[in-house]
Write a structure and sequence with these properties.
- With about 150 residues, the protein is mostly helical.
- Helices cover about 50% and strands about 5% of the residues.
- α1 crosses α3 and α2 packs across α3 (about 40-55).
- The longest helix is centred in the first third of the chain and has 15 residues, at about 10-25.
- The chain is elongated, with a radius of gyration of 18 Å.
- Residues about 140-150 have low confidence and may be disordered.
């Protein structure tokens, strides 16, 4: 059964990408290596990386040893920072219809607002440093899916 919470593909890709970069320490990682690691389109990843770069979450280095890395220490970046760089501000939700039509309180009570606050709090409390071990170290980032299966 699919969950109720939906996160866009771009936001999901951004969250996984920064966790991957956090695992690679200070070494720049090529977009094609991250795309291979995550099994996604390099073109789509490049668009997400552009947005993360514009938001100041990642920085890029050109050249043969270039790539992407976090612009700040992994302890200073939250998943909320990353999510909002892609999706915009997580604002309190009050109505499914985007305008109040219920005259005696919301049809769902405070459910929408409460869930939004819980998701926001969870994303705000999760720092990239806490997640970097999910992807292993530098060797895992550089290896494509076929290379990792032989380890």
């Amino acid at each position: 059964m699919a969950g109720v919470l939906r996160i866009s593909e771009a936001a999901s890709l951004a969250l996984h990408t920064v966790a991957c970069l956090a695992a690679s320490s200070e070494k720049p990682v090529a977009a094609k290596d991250v795309a291979g690691r995550l099994g996604v389109s390099e073109a789509h990843l490049s668009k997400v990386l552009q947005r993360l770069s514009k938001a100041g979450i990642v920085r890029s280095t050109r050249g043969p040893h270039g790539g992407f890395r976090l612009a700040h220490d992994a302890n200073d970046v939250t998943l909320l920072d990353v999510y909002e760089a892609i999706e915009g501000s997580v604002a309190p939700a009050t109505c499914l219809l985007k305008r109040s039509v219920c005259h005696k309180g919301c049809l769902l009570g405070d459910l929408i607002r409460d869930i939004t606050e819980q998701v926001r709090d969870q994303l705000a409390s999760a720092r990239l440093a806490d997640l970097s071990d999910r992807f292993g170290g530098d060797d895992d980032v550089d290896a494509g899916p076929e290379d990792r299966s032989h380890r």
